Amino acid sequence: MNQKKNICILILFLVFLSSSVYGYGNVLNVLDRESKEKVREEIYSTDRKEIINRNNSKWDEKKELFQKFFYRKNIQSYSETKEEKNFEEYEFFRKGLNFYFSSLNFDLDQKNTYMAIDILNQFIQRFQNSSKITEANKLLNELLKKIEKKDYYIANIYFSMQKNYAALVSFRDFLNDFPKSNFKENVLYKICIIRYRIAIANNTNHKKNISDFLESYKKYVKSYPNNYYHIKKLQDLYKKLMNN
Fold it and tell me: Exposed, middle or buried: residue 22 (CB in 10 Å: 0-12, 13-18, 19+)?
């Protein structure tokens, strides 16, 4: 009897133990699921942050690359524009310089001289900040001096040949073109001589010719009052006109 009772107690103990173990397993399973969810959530959150950070990083890289590309294109465009401008500047100056060196002596054909003057004038106007401006102005002044000398030379040939009207027109044009010329005194004096020649050769407009001579004489004296030699000669010519 006692043996049966002990067996029943043992069976009940085993049932209780098995159910407890099963419940404890269930508890463990629940805890495992919650832990797994938490871990999964943490992993998901971490992955999402990494993805976001990675995307942000990629965007930053793309933005940086775009900015570098845009900056490089701007710099390249600026450099190309600058190089083109420098090339144009160089070509302009080189072309003017070529015509300058091919310019002939003042008493010969001045076609290349005029070409050089035109190109250098354009160069000075278009490239005012060029390092060649001083040199261009120097070359231009030399060329203008050559034209000045040429024009005086031609007018003086008419004067020497006593082609009075041609000489008069040439000297007047010369003064208009070169009002500050070193030849100005000689030109004004020779205009007086031409006026005297015309007055002597043409008796029909004698009074007008004398008036023209006096006007030229006064202009010379006003401009060069200290050249007593020329003034004396012109006064003598005036007396001859009055006595003619």
Answer: exposed
Whether residues 160 and 226 fall in one domain: yes
3-class DSSP string for 130-173: CCCHHHHHHHHHHHHHHHHHHHHHHHHHHHHCCCHHHHHHHHHH
Boundary of a domain, candidates 146, 173, 191: 146
* Residues of the domain holding 224: 147-243
pTM of the model: 0.62
Contacts of 191 (CB under 8 A, 6+ apart): 168, 171, 172, 216, 220
Q: Output b/e per residue, 148-165; b: 16+ Cβ within 10 A.
A: bbbbbebbbebbeeeebe
In tens digits, the chain (244 residues) has pLDDT values of 555 445 545 444 444 444 444 443 443 343 444 454 454 454 445 444 444 454 445 445 544 544 443 334 433 443 444 455 688 888 889 999 999 999 888 888 899 999 999 999 999 999 988 989 999 999 999 999 999 999 999 999 999 999 999 999 999 999 999 999 999 999 999 999 999 999 988 777 888 889 999 999 999 999 999 999 999 999 999 998 888 7
The number of angstroms, rounded, from the C-alpha of 32 to the middle of its chain's C-alpha atoms is 79
Residue 148 to residue 76: CA distance in whole angstroms: 47
Q: What stretches of 4-132 adopt beta strand conformation (E)?
A: none
Domain-terminating residue out of 114, 146, 178:
146
> Length of the chain in residues, anyone?
244
Verify that 137 and 76 share a domain, yes or no: yes
Q: 130 with 152, same domain? A: no
